[in-house]
Amino acid sequence: MLKSNFFVVALVAAATFVGLGLSSAATEDPQVLAAMVANNEAQDAALGERVETVLRTDIGLAGSKIRVSAKAAVITVAGTVPDEHSLRRALDLASGVRGVREVRNAMEVDLPK
Q1: What is the phi/psi pair of residue 54, to 5°?
Q2: Could you tell me which of 9, 90, 99, 107 has the fewest CB atoms within 10 Å of its CB?
Q3: Could you give the domains of the chain?
Q4: Quick one: pLDDT at residue 33?
Q5: Cβ distance 76 to 47 under 8 Å?
Q6: Which residues, including other chains, have CB under 8 Å from residue 97's CB and lie 6 or more apart?
């Protein structure tokens, strides 16, 4: 019984070390690294588009001029909104989109003239 447990532990340890070696070798390959970066950029672009769609289609944000950017699942919402309520609503809606890790505010309230 003790021998079989030792064998299982040794097998798991060996597989772990081999896996760690392969993952570090894969990230050293420039082609693999470039593919990973491209994939992350595509995911950020898709996430930014989803957030922008949610904000543009919300009736409570009509008249707002909002721009969205994404990097590493962090969304930055910029532009102008008519009042403080719209600003908070935009931030709440953006943070509710699946995949958003953090929302940063770069919006300004456009006071009536």
Answers
A1: -60, -45
A2: 9
A3: 30-109 (3.30.1340.30)
A4: 63
A5: no
A6: 47, 50, 51, 54, 75
